[in-house]
Amino acid sequence: MELRQIRYFISAAEYLNFTEAAKHLFITQPTLSQQIAELEEYLDVKLFDRNGRSIRLTVAGEVFLKEAKEIIIKTEEAVAATRRIRSGLIGNIKIGFMAEAAKKFLPQFVAKFRQRYSNIDLSLTQYTLWPLTNALRHGQLDIACMLAFNLDKKDFAWKTLYTDFLAAVVRYDHPLANEKTITLSAIAEEPFVLMSRDEGPAPIDQLVKAFADRGITPKVVSHHRFMESVLMSIESGIGISILPRCVEAYTNPNLRFLDLGEDSTAVDVVVAWKKENSNPLIPLFIKELDNSAQPVT
Questions:
Q1: Where are any strands of DSSP class E within the chain?
Q2: DSSP state for residue 199 in the 8-state scheme
Q3: Backbone angles phi, psi at 258, to 5 degrees
């Protein structure tokens, strides 16, 4: 018994007319009749009752029709699954992210990706900057959505989603809260709450350098492991901070983000991956990223 014979039988059973079924199959009617006869001989049962020009399914034929359709469906599914494995369309992608960098973009993109590739499992894990970079470097992650600190072209490749800028973050009732643009000199005497260097020294070093270039030594009153702690400290009136504008995605109504004008520093928000990572789904993920029409602003 061959799959071809099963397909021929299904067509004949649906048309209940060998001539019409043969036309549908692009074969001759005698060829179809011969294949059905060979199938009946193999099964040792009659599938059709023939009465002149009319035919109908036997009880055995009705049972076999139901099973035959299942055979074709299962076969097609098996072939498709095998081809997906060969083409890299089945498997998993481990994604790490910094919430402030990913919130504008990642949820919507991942949802669309999952709809298109339902056989690919995506896992999402939140990190702070330094642990995220290390996890990517050591192969614990396939993809990272992050601020482009601590990346080097030797080990990593990345695609820039958008360019962000550092901004001063103050409580809503701060004397400068209603200013659209300020300078670092204007906040030189303010107490600062910052992320811990253990979570990513590059941003802190960049900020300290920006102050040093202007002859300012910032008064840092506390360091925090989590961005939420920094924002809560600002909201509590403990101090102010300098953060990427993408942190506004946290949408805290009690905070104000103030442009730093010429004192601001650009920082790219990127999707990064390790060059030596052999996961065949990474190129697919990046291709879909390139094809995404979703603007990031």
A1: 48-51, 54-57, 91-97, 120-126, 143-147, 156-171, 191-195, 219-224, 241-244, 255-259, 266-274
A2: G
A3: -115, 130
Whole-Å CA distances, 20 to 11, 17, 23, 26, 75 = 9, 6, 5, 10, 25
Q: DSSP 3-state assignment of 47?
A: coil
In this prediction, residue 85 has a pLDDT band, given cuts at 50, 70 and 90, of low
Residues 74 and 198 reside in one and the same domain: no
How deeply is 136 buried, as exposed, middle or buried, from its count of CB atoms within 10 A (0-12, 13-18, 19+)? buried
Q: Is the pLDDT of residue 295 over 70?
A: no
Same domain, 193 and 50: no
Does residue 233 form part of some domain? yes
Examine the domain organization and report whether 64 and 191 are in the same domain: no
How far from 250 is each of 70, 88, 99, 170, 255, CA to CA, in Å? 51, 36, 9, 14, 10
Dihedral angle over CA of 271, 274, 278, 281, nearest 10 = 0
- Which structure tokens are listed for 23? 């036309």
For 139, left (φ over 0), alpha (ψ -120 to 50), or beta?
left
**Amino acid letter, 135:** A
Query: Domain of 203: which CATH number?
Result: 3.40.190.10
The answer on 286 and 157 residing in a single domain is yes
pTM tops 0.90, yes or no:
no
Residue 75 tokens read as 């076969």
pLDDT tens column, 204-248: 777 888 888 888 889 999 999 888 899 999 999 999 999 988 888
CB 81 within 8 A of CB 118: no
